[in-house]
Amino acid sequence: MANIKVLLWFDVEDYITPEAQDAWSGALQVLKEKGIPGIFKIVGEKARLTSAQQRQDILNGLSGHEIGYHSDLHSQHPVSTEYLEHLGFREGAMEFETRERAGLEDVQRITRSPVVCYGQAGYSWAPQTFAALRKWGVPVYLDDHDQIMLEGRPFWYGGLLNFTSLTATIKLSFKEGGMERAIAEFDRYCEQSAHESVGFISIYCHECDFVCEGFWDAVNFARGRQTPREEWRPAPLKPDGEMEHWLAKLGEFIDYTLSKGQIEYITAERALSLERSQPGTLTESEVRELAATVDRELGFRELGGKSYSASELHSLFAGLLLGRELTPQLAYGPEHEAVSEARGEALRVADIKKALEAAEEPHVLGFRQLPDCYEAAGRKVSVLDLTCTMARIIRLGLRDDDTVALVEGILETERYAADNDLWGPKWRIFPENFRAPNTVRMSKLQTWTLKPALFA
Q1: Is the pTM of this model over 0.90?
Q2: Is the model's pLDDT at 1 over the cut of 60?
Q3: Where are the domains of the chain?
Q4: CA-to-CA distance for 425 and 413, rounded, in angstroms?
Q5: Of all helices (H) and strands (E), which one includes residue 301?
Q6: DSSP secondary structure string, 136-203?
Q7: Of 43, 208, 256, 361, which has the fewest beta carbons less than 10 angstroms from its beta carbon?
Q8: One biological-process term from Gene Ontology (predicted)?
């Protein structure tokens, strides 16, 4: 069986340039001729336009391909990071659902297909989107974004399987020399993945790339500009005949990749079916083995071919102390990073158990979220310190009447979240000096949900 899996995805987004529709239709025809599945992440407004134009060539051509969602309006302001930046995690998740659900439903209704994956418009990533996507039943996040990176490999974050910023990512360029560079990159990634049981290569472009010299949104929405609909202008076009030329080049590129052997083009749904990290119920000895790996530093762990996020470890440690079923439970990270009042103090194990039993965990769109802190013997204890202290209790075999020094924990997974909050230069649609410090802060807190994805 082919060990190198290729995810070929298209961000379908230009609802202003008429010629972009013909390019989309042409790309679908190329994939039909080559007999491979594509992943089409569609903007809600683009789907509505396609329906209004009665483009049956496109809608029928999507049969056999996977449908993804790419936001409702893409680059019209405020984009998702702009409207979520000043909201908390719970409030932001609800706001994203309110603003973006209609677009998702339109994409599903018009394509007559479920949405399997999502990717943000441009650079407008935000951690609150994950809870809404999970509520909608969208299991995969597919894009090219560098806010959360796990050594260039797929990972779980926010309850979704993430294919973002993979080392083996190729952005197709339909300019002179672009296909030659893509072939060289493909060869290099195939060589790197040759000895892996499963390796992934992520390849993407936009439908408008085949026919446009520039981007439709740069013309109308760059640097925070919100051009009224009646003044929208299409993107500049390539010369006549260029679209057909580059569509043919896409076909040639696909032919080349298939000639390598051990290559299989797959959908995000198929990739999800290959993932094997999700654990079932554990034994007491397995939880003790996991607790033995945690001292001050808390992060994801692997055991017996399964992976566990920090929030899943929290649930397992609490379950063992309270005599509950040892099935890991995902919970979103807390709203804020709290500081324990009891630092430097020793607490009775019985008081820590009482704190766990008495705590009312918050929820985000119906999903569990870790509280900022617990109250043990009248003192506030952060969820981070409490989790590391639970690991110490288990590791030392302490009983209810024993005391334990509170561990001052470190969430080591935060290092997988980028620190730079100046996002304006990263995407031409943002105002040039746009900053997202709250988004960056929350992205770190949500690394409680981060863990490697494992494939077979």
Answers
A1: yes
A2: no
A3: 4-275, 284-416
A4: 26
A5: strand 301-303
A6: HT--EEES---SB-STTS-EEETTEEEE-S-SSEEE---STTHHHHHHHHHHHHHHHHTTSSSEEEEE
A7: 361
A8: carbohydrate metabolic process
